[in-house]
Amino acid sequence: MRTKIKAGKKDWMPYLFLAPAAFFILAFLAYPLATVFFYSLQSYDVTKIADKGFVGLENFKDLFQDDIFFRSLRVSAKWVLVEVISQLVLGMILALLLDKKFKGRGLYRCIVFFPWAISGVLTSMLWSLIYNENIGLLNSLLKDLGILSNNMAWLGNMKTVFKATAVAEIWRGIPFFAITILAALQNIPADLHEACVVDGATGFQEIFLVKLPMLKDTIILTTLLRAVWEFNNVDLIFTLTGGGPSYRTTTLTMYMTNMSIKNGNYGYGSALAVIAFFVLLLFAGIYLKLSGYGKEDA
Amino acid sequence: MKKSLAVLMAAIMAASTAACGSAEPDTGSEAVSSAANDSGTESGEKVTVTFWDENAGDERTEYYQQIIADFEAENPDIHIEYLGLSSSDALSKYQTAIAAGETPDVGGLNNSWAATVIGQGHCVPLDDLFASWEGAENMEEGYMDICHSYNKDGKLYMMPTSSNFICLWTNDAMFEEAGLEAPATWDEFFAAAEALTDKDNGQYGYTIRGGAGSAAVLIDFIYSYMGTNEVFDENGKATINSDEAVEFLEKYFALYGKSTPESDITASYKEISANFDSGVSAMFTHNLGSYGSHVTGFGGTEGFTAHPLPTADNGTYVNYGGALTGLCMFDTCENQEAAWKWITYMCDHKANSYWNESIGQMPTNKACYEDEWMQGMQHIQCAIETMEQDNCITYTSPAYLPEWGSITTTYIEPAIQSVMSGDMTARELLDMWADYLNEAYANYMAD
Q1: Contact status of B213 with chain A (Cβ, < 8 Å)
Q2: How far apart are CA A73 and CA A54, in angstroms?
Q3: pLDDT averaged over chain B?
Q4: Could you tell me which of B145, B234, B279, B339 has the fewest CB atoms within 10 Å of its CB?
Q5: Residue A99 and residue A105: Cα distance in Å, rounded?
Q6: Rounded CA gap, B401 and B437, in Å?
Q7: Among all residues of chain B, which has the CA nearest to that of A241?
Q8: Architecture of domain A44-291 in CATH?
Q9: Is some CB atom of chain A closer than 8 A to the CB atom of B264?
């Protein structure tokens, strides 16, 4: 039996149900976003409150003459690239291992998930202790193994600070890829594995020719998400190095945070946020287009 | 449907208009007297004064709670609502609160950024209230003068509650073992830092602050070495890039990695204090405020000693005169009489003495000088004796410049790290620093 819906009700019912969600999207996404765009065209520096007002594209003009901006953009690009590739590769290896049947598999899966469950600040504390020059585990271990003769300041040395910070973040990010790829692996029909066995395919052939193509959409989506998160990452860098030494770990979002929150230059900070927004938008668009997300392989 | 929507929209618009209206802050001193007359304290109602502590910590919060309890017992019609802020983000909290019109009634200010907050025009001038306060004569005049300098209009926006003094803290056992006396001059200091270093045993002569706050302390050392308190010359140009300053910086940063831990390049107060307290470094420069940390680290009041910073080659001791913390009143305060009572309570003899004895700093109320506790604390005596010396001159850090905070955190602190790592020369750093100071000073004078 077909239920008849009155024409009037049909008109407003969907909008009513969508209204709460629309309200929250407008209040917590559209409004702040519009505010950032608005302030990017304003001079709003709490130390120069007399100059407050509309300045047009002045903040953007200053930005393109700012060496620290370009430096932080390069650090951001390097950070995202290193983090996403390392986390994807290591997460994939872990997922493939955990997909196999072995004793204690459940326990190992829990252990792999641990770093993801730990807060960013706690991760920073953990790694700052590991890297500590005087009481750190890493120095002690390397000295015991005879690899290091003098203590090393991993987070203070210009040559090691980026790598050391990156390793801490990789450790935290691997579980995200491991868990999502593992979930996708478990959705691959078992008969494909049996077909590979029957056809005499090696383990590597099965991974590269069967499993990876089937994981394509998962990999595209997770790498995109992770790239955006890593681009916006502030907590770990902020607590581990504060963006230093000498801007070595100052990413664009760190610079934006320092400029707005620490220095109170909300106008310039908003201009940086607008640039970050367009960088991410452009990246997401190009990445999805080039990767052919959602398209079936020919 | 359209009618309902219109009603809803009208309601939302009305609500937002009301919200905007309520966010409009009062300004100026006129608000003081009128609000003071309307105070709930006169009508017998219990009023609440919101108070932000700019440097909360377990111990400090406990001391404040004690003072608040005493205050409320004496003033049963006033309730102090305490909120502790971490010192590292107190300024940003104030800036956000000012932008949102959500400032507390009374806020704690630190001299490094007091001018930045006051300069935004949302603190209430306290001159009239101060003039009519019976305890005014007991406040240390020098500190009150410094508070008047926080804004170009010369008005009083902050009541000082504590003063500070920069010490050279030394580890007694390490000095004794090396057969050294505490350095009295900068050359002796550099020699001692080298002599006290034993890298193989993880011991360093000194610990340099290369992370957050590095610029604020470095400038004090520069002027201490130069033996002058003239930060800007008669033409309004910064003197920080003088040859003497370059010479000091070259010597000072030559210690890095050689006589200090390598991790000092990103070390802030917490890390350098831990280096000293754990016996990694034999010398450490910080103000009186780190006393409590040393007592904990050394397991008592023995084993460490406070000394003044070394004397300059010209025989002058340069005392940093601006290390004040105090309380201001924001223009969003509705019960200004009650808020002023709280501020003056903190400045009055009893609370000022208890507070400064507890946190190990210098009181701002002269009546406290006769208190017994002040005679028994070595670091306090060191500060008093040094300031009484004939060769002592007082220098005021350019932290009063509104752009000081952004200049130091965005440009100077990373540049200090560049010099420490050898990517930049001391001359380049100081020339850059002088340029920023010149511009900020010119803006300050022009406004």
Answers
A1: no
A2: 26
A3: 86
A4: B234
A5: 9
A6: 8
A7: B266
A8: Orthogonal Bundle (1.10)
A9: yes
